[in-house]
Amino acid sequence: MASLFASLGRSLIKLLIVLPVIIGLSISSTAMAAQWDAETLTVPAGSGGQQVTFSESEIKSASKLFKSNCATCHNQGVTKTNQNVGLDLEALSLASPPRDNVDGLVDFLKNPMSYDGEYSIADTHPGISSSDVYVQMRSLNDDDLRLIAGYILTAEKVQGDQWGGGKIYF
Description:
mainly alpha, Cytochrome Bc1 Complex, Chain D, domain 2, 4% strand, 2 domains, 7 helices, single chain
C-alpha cells in the first residue's frame, strides 16, 4: 500500500511540474500568433500617408538586424545616451523631420541628424555616412535599413508601452 501512495505521489509531482509548462506554452503561442496580423505589420511608408505591410519573416529578419546593429544603444527602443528621446512612435513623430515612417528612419540611418534636425550627429551615431567610423554600417544595404525601420515601427505595436518607455519602465 505504501508503494502505491509513493507512486501516486511521484505522479502527482510530475503532473504539477508539467501542467504549468503546458499551460504557459499554449498561452504564449496564442499571444504570439495574435501579434502578427496585417494591422500590426502595416506602417507608414513615407510622410505622404502611403502604407507598407511587412511580412512576418521580414520582421523576424529585421529583429536580428536591429539586435546586432542597434540594440547596444537602443535596447527595447530606449536611447541610452538620451533617455528623453526613445524609439516610440510619439517621439519619432515629434522629431524634425518626423521619423515615424520607413522613409524618415531610413534617411536618418543614412545621415543621422539631431532630434531638431539642426545638425549632423554622424560623428556620434552610426550611419551610412559615417561607416568609416562605425564599421558595422558597411554591411547594411538599403533593404536592411528598410527592414530595421519596419522593425522599429512595428515594435511598439507588439511590445506596447515597454518599447521606448525609457527610465519609467526600467
